[in-house]
Each structure stands twice: as structure tokens, then as C-alpha cells.
Amino acid sequence: MAKVTISLDSDLAIEVMLLAGTRSPQDAVELIVRDYLQRGHRTEARTGDLTDPDRLADRRPAPEDGR
């Protein structure tokens, strides 16, 4: 896998390290990005994607006839 170098503000890097519980800023950022991507995939699995025909269907019940 190719590696990418990204510059971050030191305060941001420390905050990410504290949230991730790591001692390495690179490990912390990698863990948080992986978690972010996994959450996105879980959300897509629950809600469907744009190609899902039922996603935008009107699911409201039809109004009852007042007879």
C-alpha cells in the first residue's frame, strides 16, 4: 500500500492521539480514518445507496377514505 505524508497542526495531532489512545500520531490518524470509513460503510448498508430504487420511494401510508 502506498504511503502519504500529511502535515497536521500539533494540537490536532495530540488531540487525535488522546482520542485513539496511541503514542504515535501516524497510528492515531490511521485508526481514526479507518473508523470513519467503517462507519460510512455501515451507514450505507443500513440506508442503501443512490442506486437503491426503494430508497427514495414514498413510504407514507395512503390517507384513509372518510366514508
Structure description:
The protein contains 2 helices and no strands. The termini are far apart. The radius of gyration is 21 Å and the shape is elongated. The mean pLDDT is 80. The chain is an all-alpha fold and 67 residues long. Helix 1 (10-20) crosses helix 2.
Query: Mind describing the biggest β-sheet?
Result: none
**Total strand segments:** 0
Structural class: mainly alpha
> Tally the helices: what do you get?
2
> What value does the Rg take, in angstroms?
21 Å
- The coarse silhouette is elongated
Low-confidence stretches: none
Q: What is the percentage of strand-forming residues?
A: under 5%
User: Overall pLDDT, averaged?
Assistant: 80
Order of helices and strands: HH
Distance from N terminus to C terminus (CA atoms, Å) equals 67 Å
Percent of residues in helices comes to 40-55%
